[in-house]
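Support request, please re-run this one:
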Amino acid sequence: MSYATIDADRGLLARNYSAEFAGLGIGVAYSMPLSPSISAVLRAGGSSSELKLQPAVGLLSKNPGTITTRSFKPSAGLGASWQFARHWSASLNADWTRADLRDAPDGARQDVAVRMLGAGVAFNF
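Re-run finished. Output below.
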């Protein structure tokens, strides 16, 4: 199970916009030992995502408000883990999924790519 949230704000003076991504994923993982201390991890599953967009508007333009699009898409991931001490390991991960986005309240859904990279340190009991 995984959870991700990302916020982004951009703009200058009156032309500001913001976007927020929240995703909840569930799936299966397979750990393949490559050596006594290094493993490769393969993941597959599904991700439920919600994209919220506050479009940039000009001074005299009407603000459409926040546009929310929800979707459920397949997801995949790769990772590598290195156990550098008896109870400690470090990992690098890459995950991919797709999500739907609308840039106008009545606009068509657009399919966008969501790519997440991660690094971590874990204590294993």
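Residues 2-123 form a domain with the Porin fold (CATH 2.40.160). The chain is about 0% helix and 75% strand.
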